[in-house]
Write a structure and sequence with these properties.
The complex is a heterodimer. By secondary structure, chain A is mainly alpha-helical. Chain A contains 21 helices and 4 strands. Chain A has a domain of 207 residues. In chain A, strands 1-2 form a two-stranded antiparallel ribbon. Chain A has a two-stranded antiparallel ribbon with strand order 3-4. In chain A, α3 runs antiparallel to α10 and α13 runs parallel beside α17. Chain A is globular. The two termini of chain A are 29 Å apart. Chain B has a domain of 225 residues. Classes of the chains: A mainly alpha, B mainly alpha. Chains A and B meet through α17 and α18 of A and β1, α5, α6 and α7 of B.
Chain lengths: 477, 500
């Protein structure tokens, strides 16, 4: 007997996304090409509505005999992720139209990917978790290869698919080991089950699979290639909404499913975090393609976020939310900035192409500067407070060596962030970029304002002690 | 005193002014075709001058409502902000004197840029005004995280000033400046977070009273030193300074030497001594050794320089060695002397960079060998140059003398050998400064381009004359400064004694 009200309370946004996605398929099948231009607005509105639905049911609930369970922690994540996905859909239209690949399947795939994010976040069972991750991943593979005529895009999609399938396999194998040794797939049951060697083995495999999804080192190798090859608006999406959702899922699995055996996984997560920070900061130094550079930057930032996970639930959960929210907003803004780099009808991706941007397009350059500094974690911009929270959680959990790795990685990675600033501000100007879409420029500026300024002034209300703590309080140990 | 938040107003006035300039500039950008129109540039510079002058007036007003006889923090403004972190501003004798130095030097820097900066003037004045906000913020903040934010945020405008308006190797110098300073500051951040977690508050007054475990103090002290040693700078982490100074535009060098270096000394007096007294005492011999090495070694290095700015930069490192010596003497004479030396060095080295800028603007070279015989063509210039040369050497009657003698007396009381070593610095400073002066000002004119060089113009007069007046005034009447700083000095010493 289905209790409709509790189902709605638990997973209203996913129901809405599934229904809207199916409706979009239907409309697309009937209307065909005519639906193409409208579909972006519809897709974005669907995402914003899903975000609003998540906000309305922030407390969450449990449904389908505990297959799904949501709380403020996951619903807060949904609000942010769905909003960013909506913005990403808005951003994409101009790019896709110019490359003659504007089709209604694109926003549809983003909606379905977001459905996958939502399900992953709501999962309270290994089966649900895997189902959500696969929905997200399969949509992502297709999105990465969406520019069918471009060899790079197809290559990116294929690489992503092959490696992603391997990671999914590991995750599934890990999940089956965990099930085999504990006899349950429910998170609640697993949290209660004691330690056993087999289950721990499964846990490690699951960490490997999840680390691939968040592009943490040493499972990061796909990231620069996929970021470079996939169409830029798709990367803007990858680097924001799913990145945030996957990070929170990672934390959710660690904190709830394996919360009782933290001493078993803390060191693993700490090593993964340290490696990601080192690889991300060193790897970016020699990159000349801005998308590859931002890919390494995202690897490093995932490392910082994992410091918060390794710090444990007490301070880590809210630190993770604060840090990741600011980071993904900045990241979306930066990729929107890459979208604006267009000359003579083609996209340019070399860092040198930004030369002298400050003189040609000062507003754009200032917004990009704020975003770069925010991602770099320099005060006074929002990113600093994210990093501050992570450091605080790390130091509080006695992970001082990891905190020092974080600090040193920040300095090293500043080498490439400063290079971006140098090119924009010090170099002689190149010719101006072609006229930037209003949506793109608007996104860059809005992201810079939110990540740089709003999070600086209202960090007390938004960070730990404010919204982030409220959201993290949903994670009842 | 409630009511008008004068410290907030003083700190953020330059920032607001910078935003206004940007807005006005954006609004009028369409009406003018030429981006680098000369008259418009002058108008922008004039606006920034007015803003920085108003900031100076506000800081004087803050100084007037400040009671120098009270040792604690005054004019405190506090608002809850973020967990244990609050927006808390306040001043004591130490900070108000450095604030006055900052607000006094900034208009001079902008005025000195009147003719020398001709490209991207809007960005230039905006960077300068934003930098001024961060510099004042460093000295007014009474919250550790707020302090850190101001401390590190100041790197960004300075990075732009060196990188955009600097000399030939400006990009190398700006990166070196940024990365050197940042690595130190981030270690400070880790230590700061640890302290906040331990004490439950980021408030200076709470942290000063909190007794950190001596073992922990050592690590915290070293983390803070990493930041302040780079900033001050101390040997052997001083190598960013000559590069930054040489490449920075004149005004950038002035503010770098005048204010940014003082943040290192300020930090030691504000954090290292009162908050970690045991560790400070433990590391005293090391700090003395580093100070003496800095004084002797960098003086000798300065002697061998062929670039005027580089010479003054190395001389700055040597003079900051006296500051370290004075601070770690832990007695009133030493600390008073260190504060005095910081203020006096801010005036003198700022003036020396302006002096170099005067001839650089005419000749576009800083090579000492390219000059000689200036006295015949530029008598007034030679007079001012002489004054600041003597002040830098530490001639009695100039402010340079007071700072050096007091830090050495303070150092002598704590460790005779340190004062003995430092005394060599006084001799060497006479050697390199007089060599510099002789080779540029006296002698025959060997460079034909110098034949028709003009003496100082009115703007250069207006920049340098006030500095000269203050150098002499504080040299004759040092009590003007001691009266302001004695309360803060006494408080630092009392806090140290309380901790041990």
């Amino acid at each position: 007997m289905l209790d409709t009200q509790s189902i709605v309370q638990a997973i209203a946004p996913e129901l809405w996304l599934a229904a809207s996605g199916l409706m979009m398929v239907l409309v697309g099948a009937i209307a065909g090409e005519r639906f193409n231009s409208l579909s972006y607005k519809v897709g974005a509105l669907v995402m914003f509505a899903a975000a609003a639905l998540s906000a309305m049911h922030l407390q969450g609930g449990e449904a389908f005999n505990g297959l799904v369970k949501t709380n403020t922690f996951t619903n807060f994540t949904k609000v942010i992720s769905f909003t960013l996905a909506g913005v990403a859909i808005f951003l994409s239209e101009g790019f896709l139209r110019r490359h003659d690949i504007s089709r209604y399947e694109y926003p549809l795939l983003m909606v379905l990917a977001s459905l996958g994010m939502g399900i992953t976040l709501s999962a309270n069972n290994l089966m649900t978790l895997y189902m959500g991750i696969e929905t997200l991943s399969l949509s992502s593979y297709v999105l990465a290869a969406f520019h069918r005529d471009s060899a790079r895009s197809s290559e990116a999609g294929l690489k992503y698919f092959v490696l992603g399938a391997l990671a999914s396999g590991m995750l599934l194998y890990g999940a089956s080991l965990v099930y085999g040794f504990t006899g349950t797939t429910s998170f609640d049951g697993l949290a209660m089950a004691g330690e056993s060697v087999g289950a721990m083995f499964g846990m490690v495999l699951m960490i490997v699979g999840l680390a691939f999804k968040i592009s943490a080192s040493p499972m990061h190798v796909w990231t620069p290639d996929v970021y470079e090859g996939a169409p830029t608006p798709v990367v803007a999406f990858f680097a924001s909404a799913p990145k945030f959702a996957s990070l929170v899922v990672f934390a959710n699995v660690m904190f709830t499913l394996f919360g009782s055996v933290m001493d078993q996984w803390q060191l693993i997560v700490a090593i993964v975090a340290g490696l990601s920070m080192i690889v991300g900061s060193l790897g970016g130094l020699t990159q000349n393609n801005i998308k590859r550079l931002l890919a390494y930057s995202s690897i490093a930032n995932v490392g910082y976020a994992l410091v918060a996970v390794a710090a444990g639930q007490a301070l880590g959960a809210s630190a993770l939310l604060t840090f990741s929210t600011i980071y993904v907003i900045s990241s979306l803004g930066l990729f929107a900035g890459v979208l604006a780099m267009r000359r003579r009808g083609g996209m340019v991706e070399s860092i040198q192409e930004l030369g002298g941007l400050a003189r040609r397009q000062p507003v754009f350059a200032i917004a990009m500067t704020v975003l770069v500094l925010s991602v770099a974690g320099l005060p006074p911009f929002g990113g600093f407070f994210g990093k501050y929270e992570v450091l605080r959680a790390g130091i509080d959990a006695d992970l001082v060596p990891l905190a020092i790795v974080l600090v040193l990685a920040s300095v090293v990675s500043l080498g490439y962030y400063l290079r971006l600033l140098k090119v924009m501000w010090f170099d002689e100007p190149k010719e101006a970029f072609e006229r930037v879409d209003v949506t793109v420029l608007g996104t860059v500026i809005a992201c810079a304002l939110v990540a740089g300024v709003v999070f600086m002034i209202f960090i007390g209300e938004l960070g730990t002690g404010g919204w982030a703590s409220y959201a993290a309080s949903g994670l009842v140990p | 005193m409630g009511g008008f938040p004068i410290l907030t107003a003083m700190t953020f006035l330059p920032l607001i002014g910078a935003l206004l300039i940007v807005l006005v500039r954006a609004a009028t950008a369409g009406s003018r075709a030429a981006a680098d129109d000369g008259r418009q540039n002058r108008a922008i510079l004039m606006a920034s001058l007015i803003i920085s002058a108003a900031t100076f007036v506000l800081s004087v007003a803050a100084f007037l409502s400040f009671d120098a006889t009270q040792p604690g923090y005054q004019l405190v403004e506090q608002h809850a902000w973020y967990g244990p972190i609050s927006y808390k501003l306040g001043i004591d004798g130490l900070s108000i004197s450095l604030i006055l130095l900052t607000t006094f030097l900034t208009p001079i820097c902008l005025l000195a840029s009147w003719n020398s900066i001709n490209k991207r003037v809007t960005e230039y004045v905006v960077a300068f005004l934003v930098l001024e906000t961060f510099m004042i913020g460093v000295f007014t903040a009474l919250d550790l995280v707020l302090f850190y934010i101001f401390f590190e945020a100041g790197l960004i405008p300075m990075f732009l000033i060196i990188g955009i308006w600097g000399g030939k190797d400006r990009i190398y110098a700006s990166f070196k400046f940024f990365l050197y300073t940042l690595i130190g500051s981030l270690l400070l951040l880790v230590a700061a977070i640890y302290m906040i977690q331990a004490a439950g508050s980021a408030d200076f007054e709470v942290l000063e009273q909190y007794a950190f475990d001596p073992g922990i103090q050592t690590w915290l002290w070293l983390a803070f030193l990493a930041s302040f040693a780079v900033k001050l700078p101390m040997w052997p982490v001083h190598t960013w300074l000559p590069d930054a100074h040489v490449q920075a535009p004149t005004a950038g060098s002035v503010v770098l030497a005048g204010v940014l270096l003082k943040m290192g000394g300020y930090g030691m007096l504000r954090f290292s001594l009162p908050m970690f007294p045991d560790a400070s005492a433990y590391f005293q011999p090391m700090m003395f050794a580093l100070a003496v090495v800095a004084i002797i070694y960098t003086s000798l290095v300065a002697w061998r320089q062929t670039d005027m700015k580089k010479l003054i930069a190395y001389s700055s490192v040597a003079h900051m060695g006296f500051v370290t010596l004075g601070i770690f003497a832990f007695n009133e004479t030493g600390i008073q002397g260190a504060i005095f030396q910081m203020l006096s060095h801010g005036l003198i080295s700022g003036a020396l960079f302006l002096i170099v800028g005067v001839v650089y603007d005419r000749m576009h070279t800083r090579e000492i060998a390219a000059y000689g015989g200036l006295v015949g063509r530029m008598p007034i210039y030679a007079g001012f140059f002489m004054l600041f040369t003597m002040a830098n050497v530490g001639l009695p009657g100039t402010s340079g003398f007071v700072g050096e003698i007091l830090t050495m007396v303070g150092g002598f009381q704590a460790a005779t050998w340190a004062a003995f070593g430092a005394a060599f610095g006084v001799i060497f400073s006479a050697v390199y400064m007089l060599t510099l002066y002789r080779r540029t000002v006296f002698g025959e004119i060997t460079n034909p381009h110098l034949e028709d060089i003009k003496d100082m113009n009115r703007i250069e007069w207006a920049c340098i004359a006030p500095l000269a007046a203050l150098t002499i005034l504080f040299g004759i009447a040092p009590n003007l400064i001691f009266a302001v700083t004695s309360g803060a000095t006494g408080r630092i010493i009392a806090l140290m004694a309380g901790g041990q």
